[in-house]
Amino acid sequence: MNMNRRRLCALAGLAWSAAALILPAFAADPPAADPEVTLELIMSDPDWIGRAPTRVYWADDSQSFYYSQKREGEQTSDLHHADLTGAFDVLVEDKDRGAVDSASGQYNADRTKKIFSRNDDLFLKDISTGKLHQLTRTAASERRPLFLVDDANIAYQRGGAIIVRNLTTGLEYQPADLRLEQDPAKAKEKKQKKDDKNYLVKQQYRLFDVIREQEERRDAAQDRARARRAADPTRAPTPFYLGSKDRITTSSLSPSGDWMLVALSRSKPDRGKADSVPHWVTQSGYIEPQRARSKVGTGSDDPVRLLLLDLTNHKQHKLDLSILPGIADDPLADLKAAKDKANKNNTDDDSTSADQDDTTNPDASADTDSDEIDADAKNDTQNKADTKKKKKAKPRPISLVNYEWSNDGKRLALMLRSADNKDRWVATVNVVENAAAADDAHAADDDAPALRTIEHLHDDAWINWRFNNFGWLHHRAAPHDVPHDVLWFLSERDGYSHLYTADDDTEPTQLTTGAYEVSNVVPSPDGQYLYFTANKPHPGQHELYRVPTVGGDLQQLTIITGDNSFTLSPDQTKVLIRHSETTIPPDIYIQPLAPNTDPPAPRQLTHTVSDKFKSIHWTKPDIVAIPSTHTNQPIYSRLYTPAENSDSTGDPRPAILFVHGAGYLQNSHKGWSGYFHEFMFHTLLTRLGYVVLDMDYRASAGYGRDWRTAIYRNMGTPELQDLEDGINYIVANQNVDPNRVGIYGGSYGGFMTLMGLFQRPDLFACGAALRPVTDWAHYNHGYTSNILNIPKIDPDAYANSSPIEFAAGLEDPLLICHGMVDDNVFFEDTVRLAQRLIELEKQNWEIALFPVERHGFTRPSSWLNEYRRILKLFETNLK
User: Fold this and answer.
1) Is residue 334 scored above 50 in pLDDT?
2) Which of 8, 579, 697, 714 could disulfide-link 719, Cβ–Cβ 3.0 to 4.6 Å?
């Protein structure tokens, strides 16, 4: 840190000490003009703000709606039922909850009936009469009901079994009996082969008639039992034997009722060694350990095995996943080769002196030409071995992301992902074609269903864990055409999440395009339109659109500036909008859908924000597009500025950079932030004269694939470059003193605070790292391996991205706050960093411990204590 800034910090510390002598206690109150904005208020139980509606859904008749609301002072929520005119908004009593409409469920083909599961029991509703029938009331878990195509039967899952129920007779049966054991016929065949090699067994059969007769009687009895089972329609079906080494992770019956998808994986998957989180303040008075997640790269992949069961012909077919394009490629081959080469060079360096000593050996003076010939032969042998190895490359392990049967049950769509998350496939299986082949007497013995790849999506970094929705449309190309099923899916293949459809073997058709993201897709019942949410007007503003499934122009259905989530009515004539703005928490609005006219203004239905909150003049952030010096996209950011001195004149001002967590999260949108404590804290900071900047740095959500993957193998560097651009922007435009900039954030924001202080002490005068990741090798596998691969393969990525590796760069005051029972970012992260800082003999750092808090604090006293420390840090070092 330069000398001028050190003097400023020292003077600020003296000024704070003098103020502390005058004030009776430290208080973070803003100027007297608005005395109610205090840390005590901001960090108190958030019920005082209002209890925003959640889990909004329509009644089945599209004339009223339901929503949940947190009960004041408690953690439970109540269910409300309200109409569209404001005539009633009533609390649903506990005794009546079993009779209300369900947010989920499935309609039959003509949408006259709806089947759903509630509290693990089944209900059937007649839409025309509104009559509700409870079908089950058991202690078992009965879930995922669906109508079969005949409309007379439903299927559902009870425990691990699929059950079919006839709605007229009430008969229930299992369409398939799945057993995780070895097929007895194969077991017998295996035993026979073993016996054929056993002299004593062969001798017994040769010498004694009774042995042969006993076995023949057993075989005959088993054959009779199988024949009787097959002939008797009242009996359960013949079992499918799936092997004893796997477990069933997914089973799904086709709507036609004659095929079943079964996904299997290892019965004992290797998740890696579990860590432990000790609880310190316990009822017992003893430290109580909590079993927690494992660390990245410590387990092994758990590949899926997919079976299609032909229930009519009682055949099971293994889907051949090796035909997926690119499945046998190794995207990390170059990294592995470079690592092996580096290891070899290190080994060669270690043995240099030994090689030099060998020159005294007479054999060392062997003929040079002979050495070259031997080397050529060795290289030729190695090249042949490499070629052979490539030919025998094994398919990478994959997982099943999702699956969807077509409405008629004739086709199955699968979304599959490689275990390294660099490839995703959308594929289909036509079971009707397979059935025809199975019935053909001249068909090949191997009549297994064939996968057809609809789309292969590859990313050198990683495939997005969002935007993986897909499904089938029951579609007519023209009014009088016979309806058929068309697949729709989301893909980032052009850099942004967009909508595609695919019909049979044709190339997918792109329905949307542009520098925006499509999500939350809902097909219309008639298959003519796809409704969706997109941030087309602005990256931080989501509106509702629809597009014809045959392609055509987008129709914007809403215009409501802010952050919005949409719930279409069952009749798709209107929409409920959970709408918020940057200074206004969410409430529910309604708007009719008028696709061919300008969208009408929405009308507010709920009013849950408290009068006390609305009476405060909160600092409204501007959403600014900060130019980037490293990309051709701007860095969208929330900018909070003090009301006074807004023309950027007068004395230079201090500034704070808030860094949002999660990495892949969007916070510079036009709605209410999940960081509501921080939003209110930023109002307090602006009233104390600070400029506050909250940036959607690279890796943030909402800005496309390239923005997301910019941090691949290099976490902390692109983001820090963006923060520097932000500082330069506020210095140039907001009269900010570059020597008085602080930084704070939690989780990923805590990680970035450490990277900023350790790697760029010239940018920041102090920082507060809350629940920070200090070493990515200690974080979880699912998140970290996507971005940094795994330590065994890519140690450089971890070394370049972990703050603990750069702790020697700390110069300025650092506050670390961490919950000691954090089971997301373990408190161990902070402990290890503390030891590193101690050994480096660093000063001006401190740790605040919160013994009963997890990753997200819940107790107001903890929030208050934490933010008192943060504010004191800033006031001491930046004023």
Assistant:
1) yes
2) 697
Closest CA to 842 of 757, 715, 764, 745: 757
The DSSP line for 299-334 is S-----EEEEEETTTTEEEE--GGGSTTTT--TTHH
Mean pLDDT is lowest, of 168-177, 280-289, 352-361, 613-622, for 352-361
Bridge partners, residue 470, by sequence: 489
Using alpha carbons, select from 28, 3, 2, 15 the residue that is nearest to residue 877.
Answer: 15
| pLDDT score, position 470 | 95
Instruction: Tell me where in the chain the CATH 3.40.50.1820 domain(s) lie.
Output: 3-30+618-878
Contact 713, 693 (CB under 8 A): no
Amino acid at residue number 391: K
Three-state SS for 81? Answer: strand
Which helix (H) or strand (E) covers residue 54, if one does? Answer: strand 54-58
Number of Cβ within a 10 Å radius of residue 812: 22
Length of the chain: 879
pLDDT the model gives residue 215? 86
Under CATH, what is the fold of the domain 3-30+618-878?
Rossmann fold (3.40.50)
CA dist 528 and 555 (Å) reads 13
**Number of other residues whose CB lies within 10 A of the CB of residue 730:** 24
**Phi then psi for 781, rounded to 5 degrees?**
-80, -45
Sequence-distant (≥ 6) Cβ neighbours of residue 480 within 8 angstroms? none
736-771 pLDDT, tens per residue? 999 999 999 999 999 999 999 999 999 999 999 999
Cα separations in angstroms, 509 against 60, 407, 547, 819: 33, 21, 13, 49
Q: What is the distance of C-alpha 453 from the center of its chain?
A: 24
367 in Cβ contact with 379 (< 8 Å): no
Phi-psi category of residue 430: left, alpha or beta, with phi > 0 → left and psi -120 to 50 → alpha: beta
User: What tokens does 117 get?
Assistant: 């599961």
Please give the structure tokens belonging to residue 501: 């459809």
Rounded CA separation 403/553 (Å): 29
The DSSP secondary structure of 117-185, one letter per residue, reads EETTEEEEEETTT--EEE----SS-EEEEEE-TTSSEEEEEETTEEEEEETTT--EE-S--EESS--HH
Which sign, positive or negative, has the C-alpha torsion 624, 560, 663, 766?
positive
Alpha carbons within 13 A on the beta-carbon side of 802 = 21
Sign of CA dihedral 239, 243, 245, 250: negative
Strand partners, 815: 768, 846
Q: Indicate whether 27 pLDDT > 50.
A: no
DSSP helix/strand/coil, 560: coil
CA–CA dist 681, 817 (Å, integer): 17
Q: Provide the token pair at 354.
A: 């030994």
| Environment class of 737 (CB within 10 Å of its CB; exposed 0-12, middle 13-18, buried 19+) | middle
pLDDT of residue 645: 53
Closest CA to 742 of 729, 723, 725: 723
Instruction: Tell me which H or E stretch contains 20.
Output: helix 3-22
866 contacts 745 by C-beta, under 8 angstroms: no
What is the DSSP code string of 835-860? HHHHHTT--SEEEEEETT--SS---H
Comparing C-alpha atoms, which of 672, 701, 533, 545 is closest to residue 609?
672
The span from the CA of 684 to the CA of 209, in Å, is: 97
Q: Which of 598, 596, 602 is nearest to 560 (CA)?
A: 602
User: Backbone dihedral region of 739: left (phi > 0), alpha (psi from -120 to 50 degrees) or beta?
Assistant: alpha
Question: Model-level pTM greater than 0.90?
Answer: no
- DSSP E strands in 599-634: the ranges are 603-604, 622-626
User: What is the rounded CA–CA span in Å between residue 516 and residue 317?
Assistant: 41
Phi, psi of 380 (to 5 degrees): -65, -40
Structure tokens at 390: 């490539």
The count of other CB atoms within 10 Å of the CB of residue 191 is: 11
